[in-house]
Write a structure and sequence with these properties.
With about 110 residues, the chain is α+β, with helices and mostly antiparallel strands. The protein is about 20% helix and about 35% strand. The chain is built from 2 helices and 6 strands. The chain has helices at about 50-55, 85-95; strands at about 5-10, 15, 35-45, 60-65, 75-80, 100-105. Strand 4 and strand 5 form a beta hairpin. The radius of gyration is 14 Å and the shape is globular.
């Protein structure tokens, strides 16, 4: 079973994320097991959170994208077959979206069963 780290920290700021547990993760399109899942915390230009969340939500591998309040403007749940695939999604797809100023990727870890 996997879970989300209760705290993702950047510098002196920390964001408390809800704990979520799922038995098996699969790519809906491919039916293959997901090796890596992560939360991507996004800061946007002022007034861009809603449009960024909408656009990010359409990217393959993004399970959910929500605009939120706090130190980050959008929180994304992403899944990929490998760390490399996740990195390519963040760098070549997410960071290219107009209005995004900064991202922080928090991989989900499995600490025992």
């Amino acid at each position: 079973m996997g879970y989300i780290p209760e705290n993702c920290t950047t510098g002196t700021r920390s964001l408390r994320l809800p704990r979520v547990v799922r038995e098996t993760w699969t790519h809906e399109e491919e039916g293959s097991p997901v090796a890596v899942s992560a939360y991507v915390l996004i800061q946007t230009e002022v007034g861009k959170a809603e449009s960024v969340a909408r656009e990010v939500g359409g990217i393959q591998g993004v399970v959910a994208a929500e605009d939120v309040t706090g130190p980050y403007d959008v929180i994304v749940r992403a899944e990929a077959a490998s760390v490399d695939e996740l990195g390519r999604m963040v760098v070549s797809r997410l960071q290219m979206i107009e209005g995004i100023t900064r991202t922080l990727t928090c991989p989900v870890v499995n600490l025992g069963d």
